[in-house]
Amino acid sequence: MSRLSSTGDTPTAELASDHLRKALIDRLRSAIGDALVDSYLVAGVDVWVRVRADAWRQAGLALRDQLGMDYFCYLSAIDWMPSPFGRSEDDPTAEVTERDDTIRQGYAGGETRFQMLARVVSSSTHVGINIKADVSENDLTVESWIPVYTGANWHERETWEMFGINFAGHPDLRHMYLPTEFEGFPLRKDFPLLARLVKPWPGIADVEPMPGVSGDDEGGE
Amino acid sequence: MTMIDERRQLSYIAAQAADARVNVELETEGMTLNIGPQHPATHGTLRIIARLDGEQVVWAEPSAGYMHRGYEKLTEVRTFPQITALVNRIDWLGSFANEVPFILAAEQLMGIEAPPRAQHIRTILFELSRIANVSLFLGDLGVQLGAITPVFMAFRDREYVLNLIEAATGGRFHPNFDRIGGLKDDLPKGWLEDTKASMHKLRTFCGEIEDLLFGNEIFQARTRGVGIIPKEVALQYGLSGANLRASGVDWDLRRDQSLPMAWDKVDWKVWTHPDGDCFARCWIRLQEVREATKIVDQLCDTVPSGPIMAKVPRIIKVPEGEAWVSTENPLGEMGYYVVSKGDTGPFRVKIRSASFNNISITPWLLKGVLVPDIITILASLYFILGDIDR
């Protein structure tokens, strides 16, 4: 991965090892022990950690108090199940093709379909950390982060209405955007994009080869 | 004590008791004030429900969602180049600035970088959208506090910037100009000279606003000491941009992270203010427009020559991976968490918009303030509805 910098003041050798972000992982491990399941580091770019869901709040407290991550950036979730509707670009008259439905999680691994995703940053060093947690599908609940970061309130409401993940200890899990009577969780992959079901994506109708290029050439520069 | 004095005192006590009884009766019944969703003071469709005790707010909460368009879901059925057209419409006053972090995230995943000329022009357009956005705030601020003139000046002078953006990109509000690997087009002839001339006009505008508004006694009385956000609270709520710097946190993503942009090549200053009140937030924004004009001025002098597009495949497939890129947008920190599975489109995009966090502090901040201060505080926090609802 290329280095996203044009400044010349950081030596490349130091970047390759990235002591600052590596130290973050070590300090989090010493704070919460084996509740830190996995970590992933892209030197000079970013760091990811995955914690056990039952240690979600504990990890937040450790990040805030011991690692100095005082700035709350955002909190959300990821549904790792590949969408059964693909990219909603199918020709409705064509035969249904088999889709790959294996769940593959991203950086720092994972075991469950749903993962929590949050980011907190230190306002003094300006280095942030992405934190994930596996949420079991049998019990889609994690502890609320409101006692850790007050600003998590709205983010948790949004995550609850979009993914159906419950936050134990949240004072009012009400709808943020959707109407009160709304059923279903729109950002889950098995929730169809209704507009595309009502009217299929017109893009499939007018695929035209570029002049002078053969139809299925994908890598041409 | 004479009899008259005694009588006077007794009547005074009786009057006090009567008043107290009335007060007690009034206290038993609060009043709920509903502002919006369509109200001139809420710019956009943000609805605020405030429970009042007399003139004082006991409890208040904004109700968002009247403009929720579900961009996070829509990105999952679009290709990477198509998404810039969507994210243009998040913060519609500074559209180009929305495109940049998304394109940077995609470029980071693909391991490519835009050529220096493209980075340079990107930065110029980024700062121009900041000026277009925040100069409107400076005018709008006056209207919300009862001063009509500044808004005419803001619309007059913002026009110069919009014309520049239109000349370069073809769109006044939704440029859709940024591409993975560079920019759609090069700049038109004579554009850099026009830009420098306009920056001079914008600096004059800042001076006028400072004289008219910031030096005004009424303005100061309405904003100083109102809606104070301490540093720790601001960080807890994830406030960003001018709102955070007005609480004394010296943090600007343009300066404090290394991105393939041109901010580190010019000389400019990050302003902070220790007070954390409405005045501080407005003042910081005024300074930011000034700094932005300085940045654009210097960048116009040093645009490097070369291509504006890196070598990218005709059909863009982004390798598997995850990337987080955020930039210092006109409203604050705007970031995208992009998850790609090696397809032509992203698997998931989390859009972290500045206004969502900035406005989530209002239930805390509005508690105990007076009714007219609701408007001042909301105006000074500065939000765009599209940036809250996405």
From TrEMBL, chain B:
Q: Where is the NADH-quinone oxidoreductase subunit D domain?
A: 145-315, 316-390
Q: Which UniProt keywords apply?
A: NAD, Translocase, Transport
- Does this UniProt record's set of keywords contain Transport? yes
Transport keyword on record: yes
Q: Which GO terms describe its molecular function?
A: NAD binding; oxidoreductase activity, acting on NAD(P)H; quinone binding
Q: Which Gene3D superfamilies match?
A: Cytochrome-c3 Hydrogenase, chain B
Coiled-coil region: none
Q: Which InterPro entries match?
A: NADH_Q_OxRdtase_suD, NADH_UbQ_OxRdtase_49kDa_CS, NDH1_su_D/H, NiFe-Hase_large
Q: Which PANTHER family does its entry note? A: NADH DEHYDROGENASE [UBIQUINONE] IRON-SULFUR PROTEIN 2, MITOCHONDRIAL, NADH-UBIQUINONE OXIDOREDUCTASE 49 KDA SUBUNIT
Q: Which family is annotated?
A: Belongs to the complex I 49 kDa subunit family.
This chain's protein is named: Unannotated protein
